[in-house]
Amino acid sequence: MKKGIRYIFNLFLIVLLGIGLWYVFSDNKEKIEASVSVAEAMGGGDQEGYLRATGPREFIFPDDHGPHPGFKTEWWYYTGNLFTENGRQFGYQFTIFRNQLNPPEGDADSLAYGKDWNTNQLYLGHFAIADVQAEEHVFEERYSRGAAGLAGAQTEPYRIWVEDWEIKRIDSIGISDKNFALQIKAAMEDGASVDLNLIPQKPLILQGEQGYDRKGEGEGNASYYLSFTRMQTNGSISINGNQLEVTGSSWMDHEWSTSALDEGQEGWDWFSIQLSNGYDLMYYQLRNEDGSVSQFTTGALIDPQGEKILLGPGDVNIEVLDSWLSPHTGSEYPSEWRMNIPKAGLILDLATLFDDQEMAVSVQYYEGTLSVSGRMNGEQLSGNGFIEMTGYEEDE
Amino acid sequence: MAQNAHIQLKDLSKSYKEGDKSRSVLDELNLSVDEGEMIVLLGRSGSGKSTLLNLVSGIDKPDFGEVNIGGTDISDMNEKDRTLFRRKHIGFVFQSFNLIPTLTALENVLLPLKLKGESNEGITDKAQQYLDQVELGDRGDSYPDRLSGGEQQRVAIARALAHEPMLILADEPTGNLDYETGRTILDMLNNLVRKNGRTMIIATHDRDICQIADRVVELKGGQLHKVEHSAAVE
Amino acid sequence: MKNKTSNNLLWLSSIRFLLRHPWHFVLSILGVALGVSVVVSIDLSNNSAKKAFALSTEAVTGKATHQIMGAAENLDENVYRKLRIEGKIRKSAPVVKGYGRISGMNKTFQILGVDPLAETPFRDFASQQSGIELDDFITGEKTGLVAQHVADQLQLSAGDTMTVSVGGRTQLIRLSGVIKAGNDRSRRALENVLLVDVSTAQQMFNMQGQLSRIDLILPDKGEQAMLSRINRLLPQGTSITRSDSRSETVAQMSRAFEFNLQALSMLALLVGMFLIYNTMTFSVVQRRQLIGRLRALGTTKNEILTIILKEALLIGFLGTVLGIIAGIFMAQGLVKLVTQSINDLYFVLSVQELSIGLFPVAKAALLGIGATIIAAFWPAREASQADVSTVLRRSSNESKISRRLLPLAGFGLIIGLLGGAVLLIPNGGIAAGYVSLLFMIVGFSLMIPLIIVWMAMVFRPLMGKLNGIIGKMSVRGVVTELSRTSVAIAALVVAVAATVGVGVMVDSFRGTVVSWLEAQLQADVYVQPPSAVSRKADAKLEPKLVELLKETEDVSRWHTVRSVDVQTNYGTDQLVAIEQGVEAQETYQLKASSENFWQQYMVKDIVMISEAYAYRNNVSLGDSLLITTDRGRQSFTIEAINFDYASDIGTITMNRDIYNQYFDDRAISGLALYAVDGINVDQLVERLRNKTQGKQEVFIRSNKGLREASIAIFDRTFTVTIVLRMLAIIVAFIGILSALMALQLERSRELAVLRANGMTPGQLWNYVISQTGIMGVMAGILSVPLGILMAYILVYVINLRSFGWTLQFMIDPQVLLQAVGLAIVAALLAGLYPSRKMAQANPADALRND
Fold it and tell me: Is residue B69 part of a domain?
């Protein structure tokens, strides 16, 4: 009997010890995890109370190159194709977005950034470099509140920045307050960076109807849209630890709006092309959910002097020749096109220079550099360009 | 005296300290006991009977001399070995019974068997047998406080016999009993010891006991003197 | 194999004895249980506090590896911008931190102001990716988040408004969401966190343009390079520290306090051990005959030893289990006391539940069983060594102790002196103090038998006069049974002395503090806003309010005080800047100072440090202190050391003018006002209170009021000690009861003989009660010197080595009288049961053979 008791006792001790050890260790392994759930009671209509683009307006510069608080969304978007001495090609994209969190209430909120930490503005930065030769695409997203000097946009002196990514006006190259030179400086965490000077070669283009670009049925489903379609660019690019001197050509878009898209619109495919004969082409297709092309599609062909020829949906035929399935997101993006613009006598063969130039950040989209070849009125052409494709998310 | 006697005490000496002086209790004592013999050890109180018994049982160690039991000299052994020897080979019957009050009668008899360390098989039966021999077979479950003096002593006798020791020592076994009971006990002791062929030394100051003895010796002046039967009885 | 079966029977014979005499058994178990329960409850309380602190720190520190902090308390927010833009340090986050109370809950909250956009690598519950809606959080309205279960307790849901009080000012914060804890650990960690935006926090704490700190995550590789890169960007006075070393420093503050609690609990265990020794000795003594018989039958000494130890093991086991369960219950209440004390003295802590870890329980089990075995060892050994031959005779035998009195006492003296020697070990620390205490207790106890014999010689004639022959007999009886009576008396002495020692220490401390406060508080009215930690006065008074109060009628003069945490070469220390002139010398009592300190301190870079500070950091007059200021690291010479009982961490005091030279902080933590002669101070206080209505919640206290409030904090802190004292008394009481009862019960034979000889029951009562009463008196008398010795060590060694304080040794005669009284009362009560039993019993039964 004694033996039995001892045995049970020992077993009991071992079990106790085991439980104790498990308890001790498991308790330490658990991390502090928590998530925030926000009440549904919050938030009114998302778009209520903001300024909307309702029609053409006068632009004043340099102010209108700066921010437009009151409008919910705004971006300064730069793409470009840069070449080293040896002909190595890099594409880059650098965009700073401004997002307003709450509708404006009086003058206090007309600031594009707060002096102390309070602010209504959120700034996002997207930066990508495409190494065509290596078929490598690196990108990074950064965001900050527009306050405490961490991010913001201002006109005097002209500066748009998200932490250490910035777009600045170069005063020494002063052309005018409407057309001025800029410096873009940005570096990614792994060291990939650009330091570029951009000088507009053509006057500022007011896209759409004198800068008022209608995108949808509803009133206010439009944006104000300005472009520099050709900017001489030089500076340096750093990638994989190598710094290279480059020159090339960039494109700038500056748009601001509140909910540009209509209910039924899914996204867009947007082309920016710089042709060897001095013409620049901007064309975007708004796609409806049902797959059809929206009637609010717009384009513009800019001649070497900077005169704009407006293009409507009927003016441009696009045929998708090939597509690419993204292994990261599962979305399928077109990758090869044939564009026919009879009005201008322009036929272009366009293709992404390499497949994977997808931006998988808080918003998913594709931004890639294109190979351009074709004919205009019989004349052989080459060129550079960029394609931006949005709204291809798998689950939509 | 036979050379290879069962029990042999040679030149046994023991003295105690009292203050500065030392008092000699046993003085080069000699004794031989054959197997199966029953010896009565006479002596007045304070003569050293208990001391002698202590030495023989290994409870105490002599100053000089040898204590040979069954061929083993225990006088040289350390305390532990003497204790182990005692539990295997010596049985004790005390004047004040000295039963373990927290064990039943049967358990008391069982104790030496367990201490001896033999296999567990059948020892309970054995203990029961001895308890039967002292005619207390049905009182096995009783605790000592439920038994009369005589009954307790009987259990003690059974206990002393149970592990078949080489030697049984009895120190005034009838001292705490009335005359009648005492006689009964003595008879029982005598019978059982002889029946089981055990060797026994009884220490007493009661001369009546001498009747059952094979031999009587008297402890006087630290030495043993032989006593004639007849003289003892008177 | 042999041993097992025989041991069974031996074990049976032994355990039945115990069960037949249940009192021993029960009281032994109780003794262990009490000792263990005290140890367990203290351990659990301490552990729960530590764990709660660690968890909440972890929640607030997140994954930050380093933190950047300013010289005084705050950091210019420009540093953050510079770090991110120029330094391109991506893994950085701004933090604004403080404390406040949410109305509806009686606890202090940690208010954490963060930038959710930067928080992702640090604290995922605070990051934007965990779901914080930025349009609510950063856009200017004061919003905040709490954990789900806290919101439930406050009975609020998202959208409701919370009233938060910070430094006396109330603010309304809208609850814009709840934090859902991922597991139980998170739940506990976020228990007292209120999450707000940096902007909101800056407004709540009036810290516009400032941050509390900047958190960083630096990679392991290249950490040094990063550190130097960052350091180049930092302005003077800011520093980078590892985040774990910071929280470690804070945790260390309460270490001495916790250590002392633990030691006191050990004292309870020690007393428990005495109890066990007591009862084991008695149970062995009672079984002397039994053991002798077993030995005669051939049971070896070791076998006897084993059995007794097994019994002890059983008692230990049962007692420990009981003790652990009781301890867990006690801890529920104790943890609140401990938490309150820590809150009062050191830092903000909220412990909502008891963490029952495996370690304290295992430790208690080990201690309980170990203590029992140790306490039982000597009696067990004694039992096994008992001379077998003597058992075979019928006389009961007084053990050899009578022969060994002198050597025993001598040995005791040596141990006592050894205990004294231990104190001389340099850097022995608190541990040496307790070891020495232990040695002295043991040494003294060994001398007790001899002293009893001497005392008996004095008492005998006395008692003879008082009580006739019975009186003489009762005294004689104490000596004849010395082996047993001395043990009982020793146990009582130790227990009562413990209460004396602790009582004297507490009185000395309190007395010192009271007289110090009287000198320190010279002004008539003291104003300060509520602070999170009672002892620290680091909240800020609104400047306008200060002006308003200064200009009140009947205020003749005033001075202000600023209290901040600063970084010195000794770590984070408390700095107090006083705006006073030479007259400050009337307030501060100096232990040592250089000449003309008070004249010089207004113009030179010199400081005064408190005694505790000097002790802790081993500095003295003439040494330099490097303080990180807004102008960089500056050297200040220590030119005075003052007595200060408000803080065991230590304080550095500096003149406000000098402070202003090196720090940009202009805030005021406290204001002292002097009334014009003859004015009724209470009325002045009323008037001042009216002035502050609705502006900022502040404490305005008269001199008397502040003194009383300070004493209240001390008393609260010592509540724990007093509770322990109570427990020690209970343990002692039970021990005595058991020992004396056992003693008398064991002598039932002799008492029966007395009755048989014609002693009446009444006379028997007299005899027994006199005897126990005398033992009580002896114990009481002996407990006084031992108690004073213990108090001496507690005050001059342990307190000194824990905190560095000079205490005035104060012995209140009441404490001594109480002790003696306690001993006598315990003893007399202990005599009641046995005398009743003896008086009722039939002498014939006892006389019969057992």
Answer: no
Say if residue A110's pLDDT is above 70. Answer: no
Cβ contacts of C2 on chain B, cutoff 8 Å: 117
CB C602 within 8 A of CB C595: no
CB contact under 8 A, B83 and C298: yes
Beta bridge partners of B171: B203
Answer yes or no: CATH 2.40.370.10 is held by domain A263-396. yes
Percent of chain C with pLDDT over 70: 91
- Determine the pLDDT at residue C219: 85
Q: Please, what is the Cα angle at C842 between C836 and C843, to 5 degrees? A: 100
Interchain pair C392, B100: CB under 8 A:
no
In whole angstroms, what is the distance from residue A233 CA to residue A224 CA?
A: 25
Considering only CB atoms, A34 lies closest to which of C139, C158, C179, namely C179
Question: What is the domain range of residue B111?
Answer: 36-48+77-233
Place of tokens 């804890």: C181
pTM assigned to the model: 0.71
Residues 6 or more apart whose Cβ sits within 8 Å of residue C737: C27, C826, C829, C830
CB–CB of B102 and C17 under 8 A? Answer: yes
B80 CB-contact burial (10 Å; exposed 0-12 / middle 13-18 / buried 19+): exposed
Contact C606, C573 (CB under 8 A): no
Closest CB from C9, C290, C393 relative to B101? C290
- Per-residue model confidence as pLDDT tens digits over B56-68: 888 888 888 889 8
Nearest to C169 by CA among C540, C536, C702: C540
Better-scored residue on pLDDT, B207 or A68:
A68
CA distance B230 to chain C (A): 31
User: Which of C6, C8, C290 has the CB atom closest to B100's CB atom?
Assistant: C290
B and C touching (3 or more beta-carbon pairs closer than 8 Å): yes
| Helix or strand (DSSP H, E) at A359 | strand A358-360
Residue B16 counted as domain residue = no
> Does residue A28 carry a pLDDT above 80?
no
Q: Which tokens go with A130?
A: 């495409």
CATH code linked to domain A63-260: 2.40.370.10
List of chain A residues whose C-beta atoms are within 8 Å of the C-beta of residue C124 = 33-35
Minimum CA–CA partner of A161 in chain C: C85
Chains A and B contact (Cβ–Cβ under 8 Å for 3 or more pairs): no
Lowest mean pLDDT among A87-101, B132-146, C294-308, C528-542: C528-542
